[in-house]
Amino acid sequence: MIISKEHLTQNASLAWPLVLNAILMQSMVLVDLLLVSPLGEIPIAALGIASALVALIVGIQNSIGNGTQMIIARATGAGETAKISTDLIAGFIVNMGFSLSAFIMLLLANHSLLELVSDSLAVTQDAEKYISVAMYTVVVSSVTQVLIVYFNASRKTRIPMYGFLIEIPCNAAISWVLIHGMFGVPALGLLGAALGSLIAVGIRLCYLVIRIRNEQSLNFKFGLENLTGKTLKGHLAEVSPIGANFVILSGGMTLYQMLFAQLSVYDYAAITLVFPWMRIGAQIITSWAHASAITVSQYLGQKNYADIPEFVRQVTNLAQIIAVILAVGFFLFSFVIPKIYPGMEPETLHALVLIAPVYIAMPLVRTYNTLCGNTLRAMGLAFKVLRVHVITQWAIALPLCAAAIFFGLPVYIVFGITILEECLKVLAFRKLQNEQLSTYLPA
């Protein structure tokens, strides 16, 4: 296995700010949770429900943004600076269109949605207060997401990272003052957490606007003048399957959680304890995959098809090394988890031992799928990637998981179905990738 230093440096320079971006984005909810936790169980439960709803909307925004990112990356690779402005405006219209629809939905139906999730009036009322402010945050974050994907597609991934580094301390400081009432400001509780997040996101938006005004290659007036219905329709057609892909995967993960909840309390507790750590590991791979997809999109824009197969092979080799490192990390994690979560019941510790082989081995297969799915989407095969996810997760894995729980099979088999799903995806993605890459090879 030969690894090109050029490929390593190229993708690493893109990927490490993306990793930090992803971690910082997730930390925003942790900031609110840490600050709200002294208020008691009801505000914590309300924050959990409300933030999950907001996170779903922001996740769809990000997935739509990933589609725009690939389109702009192709234009960047082709050197079509005029087209970049048009693509950026089209991305803004599509993303903002979704965000405004979500805003209206939250405005009109947030009470009904929350009642479906919680039967506690106190929790629902607190969650409504949070969402009454958070829905404005959704609109502001839509604008920031479009600006972020422009910088990412232009290989300037550090700029969004600096934006998050500005936002996080602002969010913590402002929310702390507003939640608990400091310096003469009244204590607003959970509402203060929402306001703090809104103000902090607004500060990040101001920073990104200042930075994008310095981009000499952008001409928004020209981009707006050259925006046509055909351009907008084409943009929407390309980003829609990527957004649908996120909805399918998120829905599947939610259904997995609901199924796991039918296990014994100890088995479910064990799965719940390892899931956040699995997500952190997945963020590293996802960032590497996004960086690879940006580069593939730029190759396509340059019509440099011949280099794509070798590049994909190289970044796949590097991803496999990352996967092994993560697997070793999870192996070591399995020994220290009792110290991280002291006071667990013996039954929970036993369940953790049983499921350890699953989460240790998961990076070895999921890494390939994440990288392959993102590069295939960059090559224009988003619908085929979506089909693979629907078949393997919804038609095979989830029904098998439900059947395993119904027949009372052990927790390692139930949880192990998630790795079976990933193995099935490897077979499908490998075939798709080989077929597509063969079209780029010289005759």
Automatic annotation (TrEMBL):
Any single GO molecular-function term of the entry would be: xenobiotic transmembrane transporter activity
Please give the superkingdom of this protein's source. Answer: Bacteria
One GO cellular component term: plasma membrane
Q: Which residues cross the membrane?
A: 12-36, 42-60, 88-110, 130-150, 162-183, 189-210, 318-337, 349-369, 390-415
Q: What keywords would UniProt list here? A: Membrane, Transmembrane, Transmembrane helix, Transport
The UniProt entry, under PANTHER family, shows: FMN_FAD EXPORTER YEEO-RELATED, MULTIDRUG RESISTANCE PROTEIN NORM-RELATED
Name of the protein described by the UniProt record: Na+-driven multidrug efflux pump
| Taxonomic source organism | Reinekea marinisedimentorum
